[in-house]
What does this fold into?
Amino acid sequence: MKICFEAFVSISIFILISVPAFLNAQSGRQGNHCGVQKSSYRLSMDSGKVVYIKQCLSCHQADGRGVTNINPPLDGKVVTGDKKKLIEIVINGQVIHEEINGKTYQNTMPPNPNIIDQEIADVLTYIRNNFGNKASAVKLSEVKSARSKLK
It folds into this structure.
């Protein structure tokens, strides 16, 4: 019985010392999993996906293909090209109906004046790197600069 008690005490002391040290080592890490810190790019992509689901999915669909002749797909040069133009479209919306991949889409993109700059950067980074796209991330500074020029 003495051996069991000594083992119990040893295990208890180990737990009392180890758990706080482990928890302290994990504090301050945002978006971590199993103690691995996510990069700012990964955090932006994760946040962008949430914004996309909340703001964009109903028109552009889960797969980013949009709705034929109504809402355009989110793939190709339009999305991977000029970041300033994309930022402007998200903030002010878009009334013109451009031809994309041989089709003209009729629905007007509504303005999003209440979406914050970080959400714009995140959702555009997400869109520019999903749906078959591969493009550079959109930085918060780029959104702030574009927004200031729109005023």
Remarks:
- The helical segments are 2-26, 40-60, 77-80, 83-92, 117-127, 140-150.
- The chain has one domain: 39-150.
